[in-house]
Specification:
By secondary structure, the chain is of the alpha/beta class. It folds into 2 domains: about 200 residues, 2-Layer Sandwich (Nucleotidyltransferase, domain 5), CATH 3.30.420; about 70 residues. It has a 7-stranded mixed sheet with strand order 1-2-5-4-3-6-7, with helices on both faces. The longest helix is centred in the last third of the chain and has 28 residues. The radius of gyration is 21 Å and the shape is globular. The chain starts with a helix and ends with a helix.
């Protein structure tokens, strides 16, 4: 009953379906005008109807230089009965929290939409260089190949959890043993130990499983291949980069869970964009308040960094 009541409230707060699309351009323009440095984009289809939109908050882009040099990328499906689209997000990682940098609302999760998303990220001011981007091994892989031809090089690092899920599904494997075996491959600190872990994987789970895992480029997910002294196979734009002990897209998915609990996915496109903008502004305001509080208290280290220092 409570779940249904929440849906009813969200429905009354959301704008009429027919007006949802026509008001999106003015919403994007207003948000951009009120927030200096903010970048928005809107694409219409051949019938001049809404196709996709992109939003990034200027202050979030500007402060990426204070974040860990890594990003996370993921998509989540809308749950509106009339709109079957996808929300793509790019997440930055701070020492204390995660923060959404960019959001794109689109109709389908195809490569061309992902390409459009990252072109807009660059237009918004993001610099990717060799910064690792944690993601699954889906459409973003093909998109990255096409973007590289345009000079936009995405240094993809594949989520180990997704690899484990794919292996389990493909080879009908269960239990913790296969999970631990793949984690051993990913976390091997040297090429010798990586090959040893692969050998154990083949011994315990067969040649087909070995082939599947061994054919994933090590620099895309393994610790040893991302060391500065790595002898991993060189690639044009997948290059070694510090992983900061991350090996999955969990921090991106946790943000998607926040999106889910907020009811955003059940809104019309206008409602989705409006709620996402409000969440961006709330997060930026919260960070500003924290900074002012810490500054007034003469704190120069965040609580987590201070705790690490005192250990």
């Amino acid at each position: 009953m409570l779940y249904r009541a929440k849906d009813n409230v969200l429905d009354t707060l959301d704008i009429e379906w027919s007006k949802s699309f026509t008001l999106i351009p003015s919403l994007l323009t207003l948000f951009q005008n009120k927030n200096p440095g903010t970048f928005v984009a809107l694409d219409l289809d051949q019938d001049d109807q809404f196709f996709r939109a992109f939003v990034s908050l200027g202050v979030a882009i500007k402060t990426t230089r204070f974040c860990l040099p890594l990003f996370g990328f993921d998509g989540t499906n809308s749950m509106n009965n009339k709109y079957h689209g996808v929300i793509l997000t790019l997440i930055g990682r701070e020492t204390e929290t995660i923060k959404r940098l960019d959001l794109q609302l689109l109709t389908l999760k195809y490569e061309d939409n992902i390409e459009w998303f990252f072109r807009n990220c660059v237009a918004a001011g993001l610099v990717f260089d060799s910064i690792p981007i944690f993601s699954d091994r889906g459409h973003i892989v093909g998109a990255s190949e096409k973007l590289a031809l345009e000079g936009i090089r995405l240094n993809l690092k594949f989520c180990t959890i997704h690899i484990i899920r794919n292996v389990r599904k493909k080879f009908k494997l269960r239990g913790k043993d296969i999970e631990n075996a793949i984690f051993d491959v990913q976390g091997a600190p040297t090429e010798v130990k990586y090959n040893f872990a692969l050998g154990k994987l083949e011994l315990n789970f067969g040649k087909a499983t070995w082939d599947y895992v061994a054919n994933i480029l090590p620099v895309n997910w393994c610790v040893w291949a991302n060391m500065p002294t790595s002898s991993s196979v060189l690639h044009d734009y997948f290059v070694p980069a510090p992983l900061f002990e991350w090996r999955s897209t969990n921090f991106v998915e946790s943000d998607n869970n926040v999106v889910l609990s907020s009811g955003l996915r059940r809104c019309t496109p206008f409602g989705m964009l409006h709620q996402a903008m409000m969440q961006m502004m709330h997060a930026a305001t919260t960070r500003r308040t924290l900074v002012e509080t810490w500054r007034d208290a003469d704190r120069y280290l965040t609580p987590k960094v201070r705790a690490l220092r005192e250990e």
